[in-house]
Amino acid sequence: MERVRAILDEASVMISGVEDQRTLEDLRVKYLGKKGLLTELIKYLGDLPAAERPKMGKAINDAKNQIQHLISDKQSRFEDLSKQKSLQKDILDITLPGRAEKTGKIHPISRVMNEVLEVFSKLGFSIAYGPDVETDYYNFEALNIPAHHPSRDMWSTLYVEGDVLLRTHTSPVQIRVMEKQNPPLAVVVPGRVYRRDADVTHSTVFHQVEGFLVDRDVTFGDLKGALTSFLHYIFGRQKKVRFRPSYFPFTEPSAEVDVQCVMCGGDGCRICKGTGWIEILGSGMIDPNVFKYVKYDPEKFSGFAFGLGIERVAMLKYGIDDIRLFYQNDLRFLRQF
Ligand code: PHE
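Above: the input record for the complex with phenylalanine. Below: its predicted structure, written as tokens.
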């Protein structure tokens, strides 16, 4: 019994003086391990008189439990200490503001383009595409603009080689669609067009949406109705719209369509050059000569067509006064949409 007492006393002193985990583990092995001091004592139980064995057994067990307890205590103190240390080391300021993820935006030209196409699809138009690199035939000839005709001057054309050019408008797709499909049809054509022109309101490459509708008995009233609805969708119902006589070789009669200036509301300003109106699209009734090129019977069918510049609409909608901003990819500009 004295030996048990002595082991327990010694263990208490040793354990309370330990300063690292490793030594603590060594002590556990020394006292409680398979060959530990207390474990050793159990071997001698058999030498004792039977009457004393239970008492002795209990004393050894109690001592074991106490030592185990002291070790666990010490163990958890070590754990607290190391937690504290790592907290001091990795300071985390939970009051710092977070870092926001930057999300992508749809380019203003794509936005306006999508919006325009959506309005026309509500009006029952379907979408068609044509090539950017065109031939003289589709860009001019079949649109009633023969080689000698002075109206070719309306488009500052970029030529690739011989009869091949970069389309100056989306109108050639009228011909391409009508060659393949018979009336009735209502089609819009989004696309890039190219002109030898560049300043604050003109870009060498810009975007147009062409639209045309062919059926029996289509009138100028249908043209006015469709384009007025469209412009009201885009600029708001309260905006006035006017149709002004104009000239295009492939439409007869032709009209340019103006919207009440979105900047000044019609009072007159720098943007509308004091007129209160802004030209927004070209349009007209498809010339019977164009129908001849696509083998439609002009006695049976009539139709209207129009062409709209997307950059122009975007500039007016968002109050942008320099077209080059659309192509510079300056994030400070693009993030505003
Ligand atoms: N293609 C003409 C242009 O770009 C616009 C237009 C299209 C006019 C259709 C009338 C009809 O100037």
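Notes for the reader.
The chain has a mean pLDDT of 92.
Residues 2-89 form one domain.
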